[in-house]
Here is the input.
Amino acid sequence: MDGDRRHLLLWFFAAATAVKLLLIPSYRSTDFEVHRNWLAITHSLPLSEWYFDETSQWTLDYPPFFAYFERFLSFFARLLDPKIVDLHKGLDYSADSVVYFQRITVIFSDLCLLLGVYRLTRKVETLKRNLICVLVVWSPGLLMVDHVHFQYNGFLLGWLLLSVSFLQDGRDLIGGFLFAVVLCFKHLFAVAAPVYFVYLLRHYCWAGLATGLRRLVALGSVVVAVFAAAFGPFIYNGQIQQVISRMFPFGRGLCHAYWAPNFWVFYIMLDKGLAFTLRKLGFDVQVPSASFTGGLVGDSSPFAVLPQITPLTTFVMVLLAITPCLIKAWKKPQPGLVARWIAYAYTCGFLFGWHVHEKASLHFTIPLAIVAVQSLEDAKHYFLVSIVSCYSLFPLLYEPQEYPIKVLLLLLHSMVMWLGFTALYSDEKALKKEGGEIKSKFEMGCIEKGYLIGLVLVEIVSQFLHPYFLGDRYAFMPLMLISTYCAVGIMYSWIWQLLKILT
Amino acid sequence: MPKKNLSGDGTAAPIDTWWWLSHKGTTTSFLCISLFALLIRSAVSMFPYSGAGTPPKFGDFEAQRHWMEITTNLPAIDWYRNGTHNDLTYWGLDYPPLTAYQSYIHGLLLRFFNPDSVSLFSSRGHESYIGKLLMRWTVLSSDALIFFPAALFFVLVYHRNRAKSQVAWHIAIILLNPCLILIDHGHFQYNCISLGLTVGAIAAVLCGSEVLTCVFFTLALSHKQMSAYFAPAFFSHLLGKCLRRKNPILSLLKLGIAVIATFVIVWWPYLHSVDDFLMVLSRLAPFERGIYEDYVANFWCTTSILIKWKKLFTTPSLKFMSLAATVLASLPSMVHQIFSPSNEGFLYGLLNSSMAFYLFSFQVHEKSILMPFLAATLLALKIPDHFNHLTYYALFSMFPLLCRDNLLLPYLTLHLLFTLIYHSQLPKTKASSFSFTNFPGYVFLLRTHFVISLVLHVVYLTIQPPQKYPFLFDALIMILCFSYFVMFAIYTNYTQWNFSSHFRSADKEKKQI
Here is the structure.
């Protein structure tokens, strides 16, 4: 039986790999050149210069473990084609060798994701396990971001899922260790650190004075060891300041060029709306000189009416939003709820964070997939949030060649989800009768259905009606429309998750 | 909870792992699988097309673009005629009028979005991002609008009275036809239209509506003359059915009128004079190109290694010989259908007649394997093991062509995808009285074939052929595929012929599927 299970997981992975292989010649974003440059930096330069090199504008801004990972990959890159890892000659290199090499490394690194899913679903029953596998391994968002746009999210999320699987098994030390490893790969995952901290403290270390203290020391030393392995060489070289400044660049604004569908979209819209109304009423409202996407320019604020938002404000807001979850985790730390809390933490980070990319929505949709099969309400919620987050990724692939692919990925995902969930929540007796009309309890509410149909309308307006009627004028409007509409869905998801955690 | 089947002795039969995908009925599973099929097609479309970046002649892509240019700029009567604006030596139209009409409609679309790609003369060799995209989307839309609905029609009719557990597998096999995807969406052609119309005709036969069959099949013939590969099967089956009616002459007349009416409507611009009609016909049958071209795994090309047909015989005598051979090869299956027509026998008949044409006809191309392969996908549930091997060798016979088009990665990926789908749910076959596996050397023969083919894959890609024989490896691939196709044809002909003996022994009143 176990062999069958493994075969099926491998089958899902192989089917996804077939699609990923066919996506190799598709559009690549600048992230492709970023990673190629990192291959070159880590290969051609000594460790002491990794975080100082500025040959290319795409400087190293991930923590050291990711740099070591690139170093490992660069060994194979050089065997294939030395020009890939050449610091100067390899700039903007786009021959077949580098494209195939990098794309295939992403496909291979997705094995990490498969491992995470495998460990997580060991004790789950067949249909639920297959569904989780489909939702994670065949996630359209992951395919679009990792295998077209180009990133290594599958690899990183695999580590996160492994960590969650160990926590769910009650093996907290390893879970904590793996989370520290993830942090040293990409510091963006630190948003869930408070949850880990509170949970591990309460669940692992709260066991009587002697055992508790011993465990606390064990956990602490494991985490310190991981950080030492990552940052040690740089602390030794006295470069830690430079590394930190590269990892946390504060020259960026509140929003990315394309606004991620988070809370700040509403804040900005409110500010613009108020400014407009007040101007009409005769008040003198200055047009702000700074922009949302640019950096903090001295004291000037990009907001006309409402108070300025600083990175500190966003930090405090994220922490405040996570607090109810932390309280729950402190009061009653249950292994079964860890995935939910972590997903919630990443949702808060997405909604209230500073300079959030829309790609960050993957950080909460993937962990939520594990939770989605646990109850009917979870399934309905996941159906909505995964479609919204996938749709919000559409503007990333803006070239016409990828248009059918992204639309078909989303439609296919929705259909498979719908079929899977209706099968999961169907009347058992009806199933036993072959050919009987199977009535399912999985039925979306009117508002949700209306919202999803609205998504289709938003797409028609932004993709077809806007260019047809307005051409190039107001080019920001379609993106703004998509951001705002998706932000509504994500806010709804946040509130729903919060209520679910509190009750 | 998934269904569990418990057989009599208490051991649990394998749980049907895909029930959750197909529990909402055939049409819903079809929709789901067709979304995936369209996704695969869109992804393959990103790869190069035939003749990409190879002036002055380019390839099939340029031919299709040129036809759009000709049909949108010239009146219909001039499309097949050599003239100042229409130089027939540069990719002249060599398919029947329905292809021309389809090129016209697509040409209008291209002209609306990218006029430079279809402007008379100046657009020769036009290659651009948006031009390629629009052309690819015309194939994608033709597939979605013609092939997919026809496949749905077929699946609904074929699985009417069968257990529903294998519908999804069959749909996936039909829609994810690797040869069709690679040729239509990779190399670039519009086989999906004629094959779709043919599938529609086949479904109409299974449904019992023969007039519809005639209409669809005539349309298919009017799109690509290669659809004639299936003509003996249609003809013999319909003849057999009509002969069993109360008034055979009337039934035949009805069908004849349907064929003629459709034909007249489609060919109307060219029926005003005999000259016009013959002008089109001469374009459809380019006998001067010889009995074979390149290295195709059929009888004439393979045996030409030993018997130099082109040197020993003149073209007219070769024409006669190939006609005779083709008729002889398709005769058993035709005779069988005339005397005992049945739906199942009809499907075998399609496979046998198209295979006979592929093996013995005049001027066969590697791409023509699509015809027998389509018939095999429709029959896949009945001959799963043989179908598995046929897919492998059909793809392998196109391997040199795909390598020339730089479609190696899609080739390998579609092999992988097909294997995954095939093994996702192995259909259960009844043990037949005749099985090749009973023959002592068959399994060994098959295994050696497979090993040799793997070696040839690697050799073709890595080693340079010797100067004296630059096409050595192509020839080796051709021989290997030909030998498998012959074994396959023998098996399917025997099975069809054996079919009638099953009927004679079984209850005659039993309704056939």
Observations:
- Residues 1-15, 504-513 of chain B have pLDDT under 50 and may be disordered.
- Chain B touches chain A through 39 residues (CB under 8 Å).
- The first helix of chain B runs from residue 19 to 22.
- DSSP finds 22 helices and no strands in chain B.
